Amino acid sequence: MNVHLCTALDLAGRGVPVLPLRPGKLPAGNCRACRDNACGGRPNMKTPGRCTCPAPCHAWAAATTDLDVITGPAWAPVWKQTAAVAYHPGGIGLTVVDLDHADAVTWARRTLPATRIVPTTRGEHWIYQGAMQSANHVRDGVDIKSTMSYARWRGPGTGTMTVLPDAVRALIVTKPSPVRLVTAHVPTGGAECRHRTPVYLERGIAMAEQRITEASSAVHATVYRTFLAVLSAHGRCGCLTDAHAARLFTAAQSRGESPRHCVDAWSNARTALGM
C-alpha cells in the first residue's frame, strides 16, 4: 500500500483529520467534482466566489477521518502522486507555529514557551494545545496554522505539548498581515451624499470593525456580510476611501483572513451590489 495512504489511515484512525497533498504541497478535493483542482481549489463555506460543490470539500475543508472518503474514488488516483500528507490542526484543537527559517526558530526559543517540536526542512513546527484563528506572515518566517488551515504531517515530534499561550494568540492581533488597499469606486459618476456629517461614516466604519473583530465563528461569512453592508451604505457617494477600506481589511486580517480573501470578499460584495 502507498506509504502516504498508510500514514493517512493511521492518523485518521487516531482521530486526526487528514488530506493528501499533490506535488507543490497543493491540496486535493475529496469529491469527484473537485478532482484535479477543477473547482479552483478554495473551500466552499457558502460564500460567493468559492467552489460550487454543495459540501465543504477542498483545501483544509477536505481534511477528514472518514475512511470511506480517504480510500474512496475521489482520492484513489491522488494517492498515486501524493507528495505528502497534511492535517487540520484546528480540527483536533491544536495550533502549529510554523517557523520557516533559523532566525524564526531563534526568535521562538527566546519568546515562546517550550512545547512539542517537529523538525521541518528549513525550520520547525511548534505545536500547542488549543485552537485559534490562522494567519500567515505574522512576523518574518512565522505562520500560524490552526482553524481553517492545514499543516504538513512530519511526524509526532518530541517534547511535551503545552497549552496555547497568550503570546501566540497576540501575534495575529498585534502583527496583522499587510493590507492590500482597494478603493470603492463609484461605477458611473456619483450619487448625492446622504451623510449629514462625517460622524455618520466614522460610526459605520467603527461598527463594522467591531463586528469583524468580535466574530467568534464563521469569520469568512461575517467579513463578507460586513463588507456588503458598508458598501451598501457608503459605497456609492464617493465618501469611502482607501483608508476606510484599509481599516476593514486590517480588522479582517486580525481574525486570520488573508489579503487575498479580503480582496475577494470586497470584490464579491461590489459585484452583488452592481458596483
Structural class based on helices, strands and sheet pairing: alpha+beta
Question: Count of DSSP E strands?
Answer: 9
Helix content range of the residues, please?
25-40%
Terminal Cα separation, in Å? 53 Å
Helix-strand string = HEEHHEEHEEEEEHHHHHH
| Main pleated sheet | 5 strands, antiparallel
Strand content bin: 5-15%
Provide a descriptive summary of the structure in words.
It is a single chain. With 275 residues, this protein is of the alpha+beta class. 35% of the residues lie in helices and 14% in strands. The strands form two sheets. The protein has a five-stranded antiparallel beta sheet with strand order 5-6-4-8-7. It has a four-stranded antiparallel beta sheet with strand order 2-1-3-9, with helices on one face. Mean pLDDT is 80; it is low at 44-49 and 174-189.
Any chance you could write out the topology, listing elements then pairs?
Elements: H1 3-13, E1 18-22, E2 26-27, H2 67-70, H3 76-79, E3 84-87, E4 94-99, H4 102-111, E5 116-119, E6 124-129, E7 135-139, E8 142-145, E9 151-152, H5 166-169, H6 171-174, H7 198-213, H8 219-234, H9 242-254, H10 259-272
Antiparallel strand pairs: 1-2, 1-3, 3-9, 4-6, 4-8, 5-6, 7-8
Helix pairs in contact: 7-8, 7-9, 8-10
